[in-house]
Amino acid sequence: MTGIMNGKRGLIMGVANNHSIAWGIAQKLAGQGAELAFTYQGEALGKRVKPLAAELGSDFVIPCDVEDIASVDSTIEAIKEKWGKLDFVVHAIGFSDKNELKGLYADTSRDNFSRTMVISCFSFTEIAKRAAELMTEGGSLLTLTYGGSVRIMPNYNVMGVAKAALEASVRYLAGDYGPRGIRVNAISAGPIRTLAGAGISDARAMLSWQQKNAPLRRTVTIEDVGNSALYLLSDLSSGVTGEIHYVDAGYNITSMPTLERLAK
Ligand code: NAD
C-alpha cells in the first residue's frame, strides 16, 4: 500500500527529537505522501526539529508554545497563508512539573494542576477550534493519551487527571465537528522512552512491567504508534471518530501479572 496520504497536508505538533512519538508518526505520514508542517517549542528544540523536518522534505517549521495563545494563533495564520487549508493535525504535547510526577497525587499544587491542564489538555481544544476553520473538506485531528487516565499508575498523578480530561475533550470535539466531516481521535500509547516519558518517576520500572505483562510481551515503539496514527489520520478510518485507540501491546486488557511471573 503506497501513497494513501497523497495530496493531504497536515500539522505535526510535539517533535522534540528523533525519539518523540510525533516523529514516529511524521515518518509514517511522509512515507505515504503527506505534506507536513511542524511546530517546535523554543529555539533550542527548533535546532533539532528543523533538520528532522528537512529529512522528510519539509521546510515549513513554525515556533509555537501552546501556553501562549498568540503563538497558537500565529501558527494557524501561517498555515492559512501558505496552504489555505489543512487536512490533519497531530497534537503530541504534554507537560507537568516533574517534581509532582512522583509521590502522592493529593500533593499536586494548584499552579501545576492548572498549567498541566492548559498545556496537556486544553491546548488540544484551542488548536482543534482553529484548525477546524481550515478543514473545509473535512479532516482528522489526533492527540496522544496514556492509560493512567482510566487506572491509577504510580507517579503519573496529575498527568492522569489531565489525560482523562483530554479523552473527554476528544469525545466532545468529535461531537462538535462530526457534522463538518472532521474526525477527532486519540491514541493511548504504552510507555515509550522519550523526553516526556523520562520525566515520570520510575519510568524504567514501568517499561519493564509492561514488557513482562502485556499480552505481546513487549513495549511499543514510535513506529507502532506511527502505524496506528496513519490509519486514524487517513481515509482508512473514515467511519471512526471519538475513539481512544490503545497502542500498548494489549496491556490495558490485563488484570493480573502474567502466569510466568506468578510461577516464579
Ligand atoms: P516528547 O518529550 O518527545 O514530546 C513532548 C512534546 O511536548 C515536546 O515536543 C515538547 O516540546 C512539547 N511541549 C511541552 N510543552 C509545550 C508547550 N507549552 N508548547 C508546545 N509544545 C510543548 O515526549 P512524547 O512521549 O513523544 O510525548 C508526546 C505525547 O505523547 C504527550 O502528550 C505524552 O503525554 C504522550 N504519551 C507519551 C507516552 C510515553 O510513554 N512516552 C505514552 C503515552 C502518551
UniProtKB/TrEMBL annotation:
<keyword id="KW-0443">Lipid metabolism</keyword>
<dbReference type="InterPro" id="IPR036291">
    <property type="entry name" value="NAD(P)-bd_dom_sf"/>
</dbReference>
<comment type="similarity">
    <text>Belongs to the short-chain dehydrogenases/reductases (SDR) family. FabI subfamily.</text>
</comment>
<keyword id="KW-0560">Oxidoreductase</keyword>
<protein>
    <recommendedName>
        <fullName>Enoyl-[acyl-carrier-protein] reductase [NADH]</fullName>
        <ecNumber>1.3.1.9</ecNumber>
    </recommendedName>
</protein>
<dbReference type="GO" id="GO:0004318">
    <property type="term" value="F:enoyl-[acyl-carrier-protein] reductase (NADH) activity"/>
</dbReference>
<comment type="pathway">
    <text>Lipid metabolism; fatty acid biosynthesis.</text>
</comment>
<dbReference type="InterPro" id="IPR002347">
    <property type="entry name" value="SDR_fam"/>
</dbReference>
<keyword id="KW-0520">NAD</keyword>
<keyword id="KW-0444">Lipid biosynthesis</keyword>
<keyword id="KW-0275">Fatty acid biosynthesis</keyword>
<dbReference type="InterPro" id="IPR014358">
    <property type="entry name" value="Enoyl-ACP_Rdtase_NADH"/>
</dbReference>
<dbReference type="Pfam" id="PF13561">
    <property type="entry name" value="adh_short_C2"/>
</dbReference>
<keyword id="KW-0276">Fatty acid metabolism</keyword>
